[in-house]
């Protein structure tokens, strides 16, 4: 970033001469520094997975959730500043409720994504505020089936079949692109999501982490919830096994090279 | 610490995706004397080292009662903590009024976390310059949470914040796995043991500078100061001499 | 030509304004109404029943109204009075339960909390001189304890082993006093069904706003079960023997 220090990057209400808003890009940086979050949309539902990096062994396991629920059936996973995330989750909850108050139906995914996008965008307009340091994944089932959206700090929102944000997004994206979304059950997607998070995790940088897995699907009655414990354990086993296999393969290849 | 262009207010991101004003606010927490929180399966305890501005002054209060089931310990700007504790008390009483139940501890902490978050996003405000350890007992058992100026809240088995708190955390990390089954007395002793590690060379825990707070199953939030702490300081000494003998 | 005059049912006639300086009024009467709710404690929990009629004044307008509902999994709610106000309450409760679900922290709103919350809503509305025109019966098993409470449009609350609202407080309450009170822990489910059906039958015979299509529900430690609408066996032979009253 060559424009650092030129003074065009101090306020979100200032463009640089080449038409960029640096403060938004810097907020994106906060997202890139965070643990990986991914979403997979398959035929029967949507799966969210997060690599929750733990900075201390004293933390209580399964507390301090990074995947949260809004209006019972919307899953919100995020990468970035945790306190900003809570702010946005509150907003999603308020939007879901106000829609239900007016129309007495659950809010469609495209609308919740649009409304959240608008809200986030408003924080890129005024010098009195800073943009949110969060990318938010929204998962839910509506009348058009399973839906997955991502809202970025700029306010841009896009629908996805599979997406990844955070530290390990490059690795995760490569893995996601290999998946066969059309022929995958939700349960399989849960296992793949676990594997991708384990693959994207960088052991040398962050030692402790916890996997969070949630879903919205028919099995959960359209509600957003953490996956059942037995499936969670199965997914973790699967992830660890595939990591070991990868290592073995690597070793074999090295052996081949030796020959 | 060097001044840079990005550290003037909380509404500016640095090119690395940091908010310096929030980081500086976290430094204010480290200026305060240390507090330690520990938890067993039935109880949760706070211990704090109090300071006095001069010999003629009283010691600064470190532990504040919120409700029968909840209390906080403060490190950093005490006046900011009072704003937050006032808010917590209001929320606690509201929960009792509307639902007839004690405010769940996690929700209480999230509420002040959300409040703190707005101070990190708007121009012309400063983040709270205080860290809190929040303890409480609700339907899901005893809890210990940390609150910091960024608005992030985390739940711990044992934790410490404030000046030289790293020493206490080191002790806790080594020992927290054994806290689960401890009695209240043993738990308090463990807390004091960790707190002692944060003291400056030559300083001692005594009845004047020690504050103890606890809450648990069938135990209302209680704060002990002055002579009431002697009993526990004695226990700490006993443990000490016992350890020496075995050596 | 004379204008056509529409006459609403007598319950809908608004009091004539006598001057321009009348105080502001909100609801002064219910519009579409449901009649009695009957409920009492028995061995395993609480039994409750209400019929399916929504009356518009004296007209039997809607004949498939459900006036019993579950709030969460362990609380049962029965309603007498204005049906649109009830729908408003349903919506409010739905929002509260959604909030609880979203928290995802293992805390649960028990029957006592829900009872308290509904009571506060009712009292709050009456204090604004704009009451929700209902009587509610709230039932559940909260931490092993049977809870059965009442709250009405004025915000009056009471708990009792037997509760009947509206016309039922005249016609069913004496029956419940006689057969239930003092035996709350002995009555089997089978007997409870018989008692509540007897009450509903009497109400159907005597209450001109009652209807022979009802739903019955029980709430136990296992949760809430509400039946589909059904009818009771009736016998009108006694009608032959009634003499007088204009017959």
Helical residue percent band of chain C: 25-40%
Q: Report the strand count of chain B.
A: 10
Shape by Cα distribution of chain B: globular
CATH topology of chain C: Glutamine Phosphoribosylpyrophosphate, subunit 1, domain 1
Helix/strand structural class of chain B:
alpha+beta
Count of DSSP-assigned helices of chain B = 6
Give the amount of beta strand of chain B, in percent: 15-25%
Fourth-level CATH superfamily of chain C? Aminohydrolase, N-terminal nucleophile (Ntn) domain
Q: Please state the second-level CATH architecture of chain B.
A: 4-Layer Sandwich
Write the layout of secondary structure elements.
The complex is a heterotrimer of chains A (259), B (247) and C (247).
Chain A lengths: L21 H11 L4 E6 L2 E9 L13 E4 L3 E7 L1 H22 L5 H14 L11 E9 L2 E7 L5 E3 L2 E4 L3 H10 L7 H15 L8 E9 L6 E3 L2 H30 L1
Antiparallel strand pairs in A: 1-2, 1-8, 2-9, 3-4, 4-5, 5-6, 6-7, 9-10
Helix pairs in contact in A: 2-3, 4-5, 5-6
Chain B lengths: L19 H12 L3 E5 L3 E7 L13 E5 L2 E7 L1 H22 L5 H14 L11 E9 L2 E7 L5 E3 L2 E4 L3 H11 L8 H13 L13 E7 L2 E7 L4 H17 L1
Antiparallel strand pairs in B: 1-2, 1-8, 2-9, 3-4, 4-5, 5-6, 6-7, 9-10
Helix pairs in contact in B: 2-3, 4-5, 5-6
Chain C lengths: L31 E3 L2 E5 L3 E7 L2 E3 L2 E4 L5 E4 L3 E8 H21 L7 H17 L6 E9 L2 E7 L5 E3 L2 E3 L3 H4 L1 H7 L9 H18 L7 E7 L2 E4 L21
Antiparallel strand pairs in C: 1-4, 1-7, 2-3, 2-11, 3-12, 4-5, 6-7, 7-8, 8-9, 9-10, 12-13
Family (chain C): Belongs to the peptidase T1B family.
Main location (chain C): cytoplasm
Subcellular location (chain C): Cytoplasm; Nucleus
Q: Could you walk me through the main structural features you see in this protein, from its secondary elements to its overall organization?
A:
- The complex is a heterotrimer of chains A (259), B (247) and C (247).
- By secondary structure, chain A is an alpha+beta fold.
- Chain A is 39% helix and 24% strand.
- In chain A, strands 8-1-2-9-10 form a 5-stranded antiparallel sheet. A 5-stranded antiparallel sheet of chain A has the order 3-4-5-6-7.
- In chain A, helix 2 packs across helix 3, helix 4 runs antiparallel to helix 5 and helix 5 packs across helix 6.
- Chain B is α+β, with helices and mostly antiparallel strands.
- Chain B has 6 helices and 10 strands; from the N terminus they run αββββααββββααββα.
- In chain B, strands 8-1-2-9-10 form a 5-stranded antiparallel sheet.
- In chain B, strand 1 and strand 2 form a beta hairpin.
- In chain B, helix 4 packs across helix 5.
- Chain B starts with 19 loop residues before the first helix and ends with a helix.
- The mean pLDDT of chain B is 94.
- Chain C has 247 residues and is α+β, with helices and mostly antiparallel strands.
- Helix content of chain C is 27%, strand content 27%.
- Chain C contains 5 helices and 13 strands.
- In chain C, the strands form 2 sheets. In chain C, strands 1, 4, 5, 6, 7, 8, 9 and 10 form an 8-stranded antiparallel sheet that branches. Chain C has a 5-stranded antiparallel sheet with strand order 11-2-3-12-13.
- The mean pLDDT of chain C is 92.
- Chains in contact: A-B, A-C, B-C.
- At the B-C interface, helix 2 of B face helix 2 of C.
- Chain C: It comes from Coemansia spiralis.
- Chain C: Belongs to the peptidase T1B family.
- Chain C: InterPro entries: Ntn_hydrolases_N, Proteasome_beta4, Proteasome_bsu_CS, Proteasome_sua/b, Proteasome_suB-type.
- Chain C: Keywords: Cytoplasm, Hydrolase, Nucleus, Proteasome.
- Chain C: Non-catalytic component of the proteasome.
- Chain B: Keywords: Cytoplasm, Hydrolase, Nucleus, Proteasome.
């Amino acid at each position: 970033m060559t424009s650092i220090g030129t003074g065009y990057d101090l306020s979100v209400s200032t463009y640089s001469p080449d038409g960029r808003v640096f403060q938004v890009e810097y907020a994106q940086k906060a997202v890139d520094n965070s643990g990986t979050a991914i979403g997979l949309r398959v035929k029967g539902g949507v799966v969210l997975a997060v690599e929750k990096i733990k900075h201390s062994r004293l933390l209580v396991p399964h507390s301090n959730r990074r995947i949260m629920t809004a209006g019972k059936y919307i899953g919100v996973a995020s990468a970035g500043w945790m306190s900003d995330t809570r702010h946005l989750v509150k907003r999603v909850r308020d939007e879901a409720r106000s829609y239900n108050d007016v129309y007495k139906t659950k809010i469609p995914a495209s609308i919740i994504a649009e409304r959240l996008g608008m809200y986030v965008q408003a924080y890129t307009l005024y010098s009195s505020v800073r943009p949110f340091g969060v990318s938010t994944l929204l998962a839910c089932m509506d009348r058009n089936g399973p839906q997955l959206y991502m809202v970025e700090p700029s306010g841009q929102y896009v629908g996805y079949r599979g997406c990844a944000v955070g530290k390990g997004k490059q690795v995760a994206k490569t893995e996601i692109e290999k998946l066969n979304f059309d022929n995958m059950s939700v349960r399989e997607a849960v296992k793949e999501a676990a594997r991708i998070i384990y693959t994207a995790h960088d052991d040398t940088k962050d030692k402790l982490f916890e996997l969070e897995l949630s879903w919205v699907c028919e099995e959960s009655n359209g509600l957003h919830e953490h996956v059942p414990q037995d499936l969670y354990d199965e997914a973790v086993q699967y992830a660890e096994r595939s990591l070991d296999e990868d290592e073995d393969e690597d070793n074999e290849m090295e052996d081949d090279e030796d020959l | 610490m060097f001044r840079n262009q990005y550290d003037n207010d909380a509404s500016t991101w640095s090119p690395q995706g940091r908010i310096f004003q929030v980081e500086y606010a976290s430094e204010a927490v480290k200026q305060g004397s240390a507090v330690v929180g520990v938890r067993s399966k039935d109880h949760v305890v706070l211990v704090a080292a109090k300071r006095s501005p001069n010999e003629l002054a009283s010691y600064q209060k470190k532990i504040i009662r919120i409700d029968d089931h909840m209390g906080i310990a403060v490190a950093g700007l005490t006046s900011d903590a009072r704003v937050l504790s006032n808010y917590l008390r209001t929320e606690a009483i509201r929960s009792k009024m509307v639902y007839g139940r004690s405010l769940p501890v996690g929700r209480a902490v999230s509420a002040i976390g959300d409040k703190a978050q707005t101070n990190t996003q708007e121009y012309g405000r400063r983040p709270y310059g205080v860290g809190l350890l929040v303890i409480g007992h609700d339907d899901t058992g005893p809890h210990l949470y940390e609150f910091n100026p960024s608005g992030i809240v985390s739940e711990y088995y044992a934790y410490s914040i404030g000046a030289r708190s790293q020493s206490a955390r080191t002790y806790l990390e080594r020992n927290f796995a054994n806290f689960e089954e401890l009695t209240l007395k043993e738990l308090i002793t463990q807390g004091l043991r960790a707190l002692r590690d944060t003291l400056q060379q030559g300083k001692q825990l005594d009845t004047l500078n020690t504050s103890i707070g606890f809450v648990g199953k069938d135990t209302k939030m209680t704060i002990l100061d002055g002579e009431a702490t002697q009993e526990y300081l004695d226990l700490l000494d006993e443990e000490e001499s016992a350890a020496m003998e075995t050596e | 030509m004379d204008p056509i005059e529409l006459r609403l049912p007598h319950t809908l006639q608004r009091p004539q304004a006598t001057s321009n300086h009348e105080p502001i009024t909100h609801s002064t009467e219910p519009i579409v109404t449901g009649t009695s709710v009957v409920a009492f404690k028995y061995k395993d929990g609480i039994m409750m029943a209400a019929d399916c009629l929504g009356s518009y004044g004296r007209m039997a307008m809607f004949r498939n109204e459900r006036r019993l509902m579950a709030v969460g999994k362990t609380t049962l709610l029965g309603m007498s009075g204005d049906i649109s106000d009830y729908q408003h309450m349903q919506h409010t409760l739905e929002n509260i339960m959604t909030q609880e679900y979203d928290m995802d922290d293992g805390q649960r709103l028990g029957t006592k909390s829900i009872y308290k919350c509904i009571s506060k809503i009712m009292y709050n509305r009456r204090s604004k001189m704009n009451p929700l025109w209902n009587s509610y019966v709230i039932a559940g098993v909260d931490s092993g304890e049977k809870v059965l409470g009442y709250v009405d449009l004025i915000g009056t609350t009471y708990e009792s082993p037997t509760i009947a609202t509206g016309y039922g407080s005249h016609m069913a309450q004496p029956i419940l006093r006689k057969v239930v009170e003092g035996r709350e822990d002995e009555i089997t489910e089978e007997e409870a069904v018989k008692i509540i059906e007897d009450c509903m039958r009497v109400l159907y015979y005597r209450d001109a706003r009652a209807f022979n299509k009802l739903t019955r529900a029980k709430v136990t430690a296992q949760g809430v079960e509400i039946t589909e609408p059904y009818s009771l066996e009736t016998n009108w032979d006694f009608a032959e023997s009634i003499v007088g009253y204009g017959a």
